Every structure is written in structure tokens, then in C-alpha cells.
Please model this.
Amino acid sequence: MMLKTKFIQEIYLKEINGGIMKKLIICLFAVCFIVACNSKPKTAVVSTQNTPKNSKILVAYFSATGNTAKVAQNLSKAIGADIYEIKPQTLYTSEDLDWTNPNSRSSIEMKSQTARPGIVPENLSVSNYDTIYLGFPIWWGTAPVIVRTFLEKYDFSNKKIIIFATSGSSGIGNIDRDLKTSVSGSTDIVKGAVLNNNPSVEYLKEWSQTFK
Model:
């Protein structure tokens, strides 16, 4: 009699446990279904960390003493642009840059209407760019004639050239008009600013926004 009772109890417990398991499985499926219905598909995130900000912008510069080079490098970082140095075939010495000497190289070049100092040939594809920031030190109130060598070497038709400069005392004046004779009629030369004292990347980023 006791064995029979024990057997019945075991069957009863199995039925109870089985019912509980069924309820748990049903609840689990219900939760999964609700989560699946309320979940939104994830959108793939594409990293742009290494993508150039302005792949069609070039910073080109001539620097005799290194001051303009520093500005150009910071500007390139500020706007994510490529950078190109206008390198003279014959480097300028301190004697060449002596503006107080009428017989110095720079004095003779700046007095001449036809002087075009040679530049190191580079495989520069100007056609890849829409906008060129052009930097140089101001000599005798205008751009060094080597800048004209650069402008006359390449085709800047339908391009936008934004001028920036470094200077000991001169302002930017009418350099945009001066350089207009070295490019095609369709080239837009914009007067930028004199950028002395090695302005920061943050400052140059804000400054570049004025030409958008």
C-alpha cells in the first residue's frame, strides 16, 4: 500500500514539474518574440577618420626662411588638404634675401618684369584640385617672382586661388591683381590675409571658413 502511494506521488510530482517546464519554455519563446519584434536593424557605421576632409583642395607655398612653411603646414592640417612646396632650383641664401642690397639676388629679381626663377620640377596634377591656397612671404609689397614661375607653369583655368602671406611689415595690398596677369582669365584669385606669428590649426580652420 505504501509502495503504491509512493508511486502515485512520484507521478504527480513529474506532472507538476513537467507543467512548470512547459510554462517556462512558453514564456521564454514569448520573451524572444517580443524582443525580436521591438529590435531595430543595426546600420553599419563607416569610419571617416582616415578620409581626407577636402580631397580637392591644395595648399601650395613658397618659403625662403621657413615662416610661410609653418603656416602652410598648419593650414593643410586645418582643412585636410594636400600640401605642395614650390622649391627653387637654386636655394636663396641670406645674402640673396638682403633687401637693403640693390645687387642681391632677390633685389634684382624683383626689379625685373621678366625674371622667372627656376623651380624644381614635380609631378603636380593641378587638375585634381578645385581650390588652391597659395602662400608666400611678401617681397617689395608683392609676391616673389618665383610664385609667378609656379602660376605660369600650370594651368589654373576655372580654379579658385586664395592668397595667404607672411610679412615683416607689409600688408597684403593688391597682390591678387598683381598675380592675375600670370593666370588665365577664368582663374578666380581671392585676396586672403597676412598670417603672421604662426597661427594655430584651430584659428586657420575658422579663417578658412570665410571662403566657403
Helices lie at 2-38, 67-79, 105-111, 145-153, 175-180, 201-208. Residues 57-211 form a domain with the Rossmann fold fold (CATH 3.40.50.360).
